[in-house]
Amino acid sequence: MRGRLAAALLAGALLLGGCRASVKTGYFAVQTSPEANDRSPVPVAVVVVYDAALLKTVAALTAHDWFARRAQLTRDHPTGFQAVSWEFVPGQTVPLQPLRLRRKKARGAFVFADYAAPGDHRVRVDPYRRVVIRLLDADVAVEPLRR
After folding, report:
1. 23-144 topology per CATH
2. Which of 11, 13, 73, 104 is the residue whose CA sits 20 to 30 A from 147?
3. pTM value?
């Protein structure tokens, strides 16, 4: 009897687990200019914001501000956003990659590229689309990727 009960509970848990909303996924590729950031690596972050009030704060940040404040923002808003960071070297190309997002709806997303040159170096993007992040000589650009 115990074995049947355990099997029934396990089967129920597996069925319920399969009913969860699927994880949304965006995709991105990266192309880095050989002269990017005065031939220095470029720190890049993709920040997906889930909290409407936090969206205004993040939208006003420059890339330099994002990288300086991200630890505190994480402590203040642990579930308000999701951030993924990398560092790309000049000339580097990254093929299309998935960006797995939380299940709840994103309010907006941003690409921050921390160049040494002055500027915002921030681009707002749709987190559920395929995009190419272009790390240019002194700024970042994002373009939709056609299938």
Report:
1. Immunoglobulin-like (2.60.40)
2. 104
3. 0.82
